[in-house]
Amino acid sequence: MVMVTVRKIRTWEEAMMVLAEGKQSLESLPKDLAAAIQAGKIPGSVVSRFLELEESRFFGWLMQFGGFRERLLADDLFLAKVGMECFVGMFTKTAAEYERRRENFFNELEVVFADVVMAIIADFMLVYLPAPTVSLRSPLARNAGTIAKFLHNCPDNAFQVALAGTSYSVLQRLGAIARNGAKLFAVGTASL
């Protein structure tokens, strides 16, 4: 327990040093990120990455959305992966629709367009949902049920690196697979 507390203090000090170097304060950060830094969960490297991304107009805008912020902080190639998946999905779905419809392709363009848009949405979700994240979740309510507590304590991704002061058991990692599998099943079913 003492080791975890010392690690949290070191992580907090490291994050605060990066903020000071960047001439930022905790108050200037999003509340979830500031709370995670205050709790000693976020290392200086993640804070540094956040400050770098905030400088860009496009990434700064994306960082306003919690889901994108968590994924961009964890994986600097996240948007490239999403872009490639959506582009390839759009191209292959359009080619498949053309092969299927041939002469009627342009006559049924609205159906083709709807199918391609659905494929792009499904491809986006198939990359977005299981992507690694930097978990910035707030604590769960005390009166939450057992299953809700278990799923809340599971990592967002089965292969997620545990940040300072946290660790994941094999059962929690399996829970992450089950939770994300259920989400992906719902996306796949909705896109039919």
TrEMBL record:
Transmembrane segments: 109-129
GO CC terms, sorted: chloroplast membrane
Naturally occurring in which organism (per UniProt): Salix purpurea (Purple osier willow)
InterPro entries, sorted: RETICULATA-related
Pfam families assigned: RETICULATA-like
UniProt cross-references to PANTHER family, sorted A to Z: PROTEIN RETICULATA-RELATED 2, CHLOROPLASTIC-RELATED, PROTEIN RETICULATA-RELATED 4, CHLOROPLASTIC
Subcellular location(s) of the protein: Plastid, Chloroplast membrane
Protein name: PROTEIN RETICULATA-RELATED 2 CHLOROPLASTIC-RELATED
Keywords: Chloroplast, Membrane, Plastid, Transit peptide, Transmembrane, Transmembrane helix
